[in-house]
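Researcher: We're reviewing a set of sequences before deciding which ones to prioritize for further study. For each one, I'd like a predicted 3D structure that I can look through quickly. This is Malate dehydrogenase. If possible, include the structure in token form so it fits the rest of the review sheet.
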Amino acid sequence: MAKEPARILVTGAAGQIGYALVPMIARGIMLGPDQPVILHMLDIPPAAEALNGVKMELIDAAFPLLKGIVATTDPVEACSGVNIAVMVGGFPRKEGMERKDVMSKNVSIYKSQASALEQHAAPNCKVLVVANPANTNALILKEFAPSIPEKNVTCLTRLDHNRALGQILERLHVPVSNVKNVIIWGNHSSSQYPDVYHASVVTGAGEKPVRELVADDAWLDGEFITTVQQRGAAIIKARKLSSALSAASSACDHIRDWVLGTPKGTFVSMGVYSDGSYDVPPGIIFSYPVTCENGSWSIVQGLPINEFSRKKLDATANELVEEKALAYSCLN
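Model: Here's the predicted structure for Malate dehydrogenase, in token form for your review sheet.
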């Protein structure tokens, strides 16, 4: 029996990340090679013509799994019946803009998109927020879509997780599939904490801790962390455009693992609603190590946190508490 098509919403679909993401979804990279999809693409009215061009290309690519396309500037039409929503659209920070200006623009965007999802998405719709500030945009969306379960609203830190894996494999010259259990804690910003204290590498002699194999704590506690934190800026400097390809790929990874499950013994990083685990303040969207099974995630519990890590977790949590306060001041 052929599967029912899944309806997947991509907002900001005519932008750089959207343009990289929609063919990946249509090719089965997000939900697997046997899951048909109907793509719902939303963008703002000034991008309507470009959005139509993306639709034309999707038609021309003749993807076997793609069973329909909705390309629209109407949030109600875009959100109707969607099972998965990937929120890529947002207001980018422009030169000379204060954080509060960017936050204020995004708060109003995410408030209105939350109500469209709340009223028109399929029951149990899963939401992934990509647009920055991703954690706080996701929190605003959660607040204004109360009927969407809090466990169904997440933000993308898998990009940072994959960047951390990339730095380890470059250093050790091993396949990426052999490295597991790096963690991104906290905010998808330069305060995030890429942690390898629990990470390991599968070698011919069994699993070995990353720290033992790298054998350079100064690098792991210094340059490695800053490289991952600032990788997005480095790519903008090199490409003169933001990291669209890797963001799109990691969005597929995030949803695929969430829906289809993580491999046994492996955890991944997801920005999820904090329940107070690891002494992180509850009520913020915080990146944790998680495992996924049967379409839901669980925070990995009981990992020892040393003093170095504790300081890093507290710093990124404090930034998120401040961001939350700033977002709420924009609402008022």
